[in-house]
Design goal:
By secondary structure, the protein is of the alpha/beta class. Helices cover 28% and strands 23% of the residues. It has a 6-stranded mixed sheet, sandwiched between helices.
Length: 369
């Protein structure tokens, strides 16, 4: 790049943070001194590509990555990512590296608060190991008694809740304080106000704000890709595409640790079996009438089904099918292999051999021989 000249005070390579990924381009916020050559201010961001060496290595560049940039073109605002620095915690959905906490935003109404959906989000966040901050928006649409009931309810689950109203601009100071100097992932269903919250935190950010679908009573997707925004008070926040059913990635044996109620009960004693799944095992410390226990059982069944499907995919030779017997009971039986690998039936093989023998006999008994 022609404008890279060796200026006094120029240090290469330069470190930065990936703010957005679109196609094969990466928007990187630079970590620079006040000037590069002691005269002018460099740009705060560069639009970068990835070195072919990284492509050949299969090195993915994610939002939130700390990277080193070579050969910056200051006038053109371009650069090339030469190295991805070691990552901390990595999220796959949404794809964000080096996050420190998750701000989980739900609305008390419009769309209505679904406890099973909320539990699914909480379990998904707990499985990442990140700190959870639960926030309820649109508190202006319910009375004080209902607000307090919701806070008390989730507090029994093990989560302190923060009430805000983006419409009335209430309760937002505490949110800003919790985001200061931290990398935060903002998550939650569509239509609860995620983009509106970022618009409040960053008035000059260009964001689309959607409306609630009157037919389905759910939010409409407005965020299309993950992007990090720099907060005025320090810190970064990632606006993520809204989704109503996050994928369950937790193993059945680890699911219990994603429920604070279960963790609290296990601190008081241990179950009889070390591999207890807290369903119908005897002397279980977890089973009881606590509110989210039915949701735990539902997610456990889903996690076991997903695990069985993964094992079946990894070991197709152990696939089983259920075959009924004459007595009305059933028993497992191995599935047949795929047709292209399946052995021919013995009757078919026998007929083929007979046909070959017959052709051979006719050939040897012909007058020409």
């Amino acid at each position: 790049m022609s404008t890279r000249a060796n200026r006094p005070g120029f240090i290469e390579p330069i470190q930065g943070t990936v703010l957005a990924v679109q196609a094969n381009f990466y928007r990187v916020r630079l970590q620079l001194a006040d000037s590069v050559d002691g005269v002018g201010l460099p740009p705060r961001e560069l639009l970068c590509t990835r070195r072919s060496r990284l492509k050949k290595m299969g090195q993915q560049v994610m939002v939130g990555d700390q990277v080193r940039i070579e050969e910056p073109d200051w006038q053109g605002g371009r650069g090339a990512i030469a190295e991805v620095l070691p990552r901390g915690l990595v999220l796959q959905r949404p794809p964000v590296a080096n996050a420190q906490q998750v701000l989980l935003l739900f609305a008390l109404v419009d769309p209505p608060l679904d406890l099973q959906q909320l539990t699914r989000f909480l379990v998904t966040v707990e499985a990442t190991g990140l700190q959870v901050r639960l926030c309820f928006n649109k508190c202006d649409l319910v009375d004080q008694t209902e607000q307090q009931d919701w806070c008390d309810r989730v507090h029994q689950w093990g989560y302190p809740a923060h009430l805000i109203s983006l419409y009335q601009q209430r309760g937002l100071e505490g949110i800003q304080t919790s985001l200061k100097h931290r990398v935060t992932v903002l998550a939650g269903p569509s239509g609860v106000g995620k983009s509106s919250l970022i618009h409040h935190l960053l008035p000059h950010a260009e964001l689309r704000v959607g409306e609630i679908s009157h037919r389905w009573r759910r939010g409409q997707h407005t965020t299309r890709h993950v992007e990090l925004f720099e907060l005025p008070q320090g810190g970064l926040i990632a606006d993520t595409p809204g989704f109503n059913q996050p994928a369950l990635t937790c193993e059945p044996s680890a699911l219990a640790h994603c429920f604070p109620e279960i963790r609290q009960r296990l601190q008081q004693g241990q179950c009889q079996f070390k591999d207890c799944l807290h369903r119908d095992e005897p002397h279980c410390m977890v089973r009881g009438s606590w509110e989210r226990y039915p949701y735990y059982l539902t997610l456990l069944e889903e996690a076991m089904t997903l695990e069985a499907e993964r094992n079946a995919t990894a070991n197709p030779e152990v696939n089983l099918k259920t075959k009924p017997t004459r007595g009305g009971s059933t028993h497992p039986e191995p599935k047949l292999m795929a047709k292209r690998y399946r052995r021919s039936a013995r009757k078919t093989e026998h007929q083929t051999l007979q046909h070959l023998y017959q052709e051979a006999e006719e050939q040897w008994s012909s007058p020409e021989r």
